[in-house]
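Honest question from a wet-lab person: if I give you the sequences of every part of a complex, can you actually get the arrangement of the whole thing, not just the pieces? Trying it with mine:
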Amino acid sequence: EAQVTQNPRYLITVTGKKLTVTCSQNMNHEYMSWYRQDPGLGLRQIYYSMNVEVTDKGDVPEGYKVSRKEKRNFPLILESPSPNQTSLYFCASSLRPKSEKLFFGSGTQLSVL
Amino acid sequence: AQSVTQLGSHVSVSEGALVLLRCNYSSSVPPYLFWYVQYPNQGLQLLLKYTSAATLVKGINGFEAEFKKSETSFHLTKPSAHMSDAAEYFCAVTLYGQNFVFGPGTRLSVLP
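Yes, you can. This is the full assembly:
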């Protein structure tokens, strides 16, 4: 089954403790991206990747890192989480992002205390 | 820079009534436009997309949207609402398929 898998589904952590949210897709998509969803703000793009070893900032990249060492995986790294990064995070992938749909993962609800 | 506005954070309609969800965009060049739906505790699913072909686009579940360049709009409609349409709807825009900008969303409630 074609899917984007995110882990974990829920995560509670404390300020400053490094964490990684994993994202994996099984569709051989070149394009992958990360978003955060906050009430009243919709989804805001954090980072995107057009291919392996190619990443670029979205609209809200501060406090986040990503890597794309292999096509299927695109982890989101928070080196020193802060409470304002409490949010619902989504990973997405696409074969042709201009004309084809984004496949979204089920989301990761992160709480930073 | 691109931006998307969705008028009305919450829209309520009666079952069987017309659904109209508004989306306006700001872009320096004609963009690619999308409508996504999000059901509770799920990711987003594509409803329909405009990719510079026909201006009236038909999507899944009876939804359609019309691209109006002069009004910079891409409103979503459905002739007759069903209870299962209750969800949050997001309009999104991209110029080159790299940076995506989503609107703030409209929550649709369908009343019996």
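Two things worth pointing out. The longest strand of chain A covers residues 42-51. Chain A has a mean pLDDT of 96.
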